[in-house]
Amino acid sequence: MCGLAGIVGHKDVAPEIYDALTVLQHRGQDAAGIMTSHEGRFTQRKSEGLVRDVFQQHHMQRLRGSVGIGHVRYPTAGSSGPALAQPFYVNSPYGIALAHNGNLTNSQQLSNEIFESDLRHLNTDSDSEVLLNVFAHELQVQGQLIPQAADIFAAVSGVHRRCLGGYAAIALLVNYGIVGFRDPWGIRPLVLGRRETETGIDYMLASESVALDVLGFELIDDVAPGEAVYINPNGELFRQQCADNPRLTPCIFEHVYFARPDSMMDGISVYKTRMRQGEALAKKIRAIKPDHGIDVVIPIPDTSRIAAQSMAHELGLKFREGFMKNRYIGRTFIMPGQNERKKSVRQKLNPVPLEFEGKTVLLVDDSIVRGTTCRQIIQMARDAGARQVYFASACPPVRYPNVYGIDMPSAMELIAHDRTEDEICEAIGADWLVFQDIEDLIQCSLEGNSQVDGFDCSVFNKEYVTGDIDDDYLMSVHNARNDTAQSQRRAAENAGRSVIGIHNDDL
């Protein structure tokens, strides 16, 4: 999962892209980058780290240009490291930079095609570089010295014919503006905004509407599944559907965990969705355990807070902040490796003993993925004096890997895989455990926009909306991306035995 931003304006846009990336930092903490176009040349700065650490004043002064794109990275496919920071760049045709959110499920096949048929070289093992080169090739075959909107849309159509998986991308063409497009299933999000200024109209593309809000842009629309949006340097906006059979089936885990609650996605308020999740789960608790004996509802900060509040209200129970969060620790879910995740939990949360002593507490989290975090938190609640510890998950058991850009690569590393709910409860050390039903979860999101064709719920039900995922593919993903494989790859990279790209940090 990554965060994207792109602006076509009337002054240097890098400072505003910086602000947008800070708002989207929750989508990726591994690396950040900004690339702008000025007088026929790219200027860039990208590196590992948080936005605030990657960009210093002297970097920003060099990022000139009224057109630019930015990216925050969360590694899912391929390696990690400075060479994998985005945007990526190719010089032909025109000079194209691209920032990508998601994961291509046919990346290996495309890599072979790019080398054997397109005659292009890939310098990393990132599927984002694959996507960039497919787009560049499809644009080059249009054969135009000066590309028009029709040429760009034809190129995006070619991308959709060749690329499978979940992807949203923003590309920057030197001298010709920016292009945003979204996969034909609408798995990964992308929104379009507009702002009137004294000098004209500015346009912005971003992963979430909150990035538009903070910069004073009005949300025009979501980029539709399969649609491409082209904004030229003069501020002219062009839109066209570029896929044959688009369907709006967004990733429901955006609503559960990844997106900020103040964002709108596909016409759906993430905040209201999480409220409905809490209400639905409260009704289930009342139905299956009417004599629950719960004294207090306590959220596990931060993404479960809204669901926990609505649960407490629906059940007529006290809501209390029982864990204080260290704001300087990143999201443990996107820590690169199990050891880092384990270490981060104790550094991140500290219990308030008065809220636990002698009580039956209901801890609420958005999800249970590997189980490591919630197991430690349950023990923290016991150590703080809780008499009984119940646990509620705002979504169903996560039993299968995600292949569209979320770091759940191996079913064997998911605590719910091949376990019953009672076995999960025992494994995490809770006295009682309740999960959201998948039908209720879907309805909580669907209520926000009845025009949605469905949701990708593959991590719960193994129904992958792109239709190209089988057990052999899942096993190959497991072998390449499980925690052990990633640790070995990082160790090799740190030892200098694996060269995954060339990193230029001149700025």
What does this protein structure show overall?
Helices cover 33% and strands 23% of the residues. The protein has 507 residues and is α+β, with helices and mostly antiparallel strands. It folds into 2 domains: 3-247, Glutamine Phosphoribosylpyrophosphate, subunit 1, domain 1 (4-Layer Sandwich), CATH 3.60.20; 270-452, Rossmann fold (3-Layer(aba) Sandwich), CATH 3.40.50. Helix 13 (421-428) links the parallel strand 21 (388-393) and strand 22. The longest helix has 19 residues, at 270-288.
How do you describe this structure in short?
With 507 residues, the chain is an alpha+beta fold. The protein has helices at 14-23, 51-54, 57-62, 107-116, 127-140, 149-162, 209-214, 253-258, 270-288, 305-315, 338-348, 372-383, 421-428, 438-446, 458-461, 471-481, 483-494, and strands spanning 3-8, 31-38, 41-48, 67-73, 88-90, 96-104, 165-173, 177-182, 191-197, 200-206, 218-222, 227-231, 237-241, 264-265, 268-269, 296-299, 318-319, 323-325, 349-351, 360-365, 388-393, 432-435.
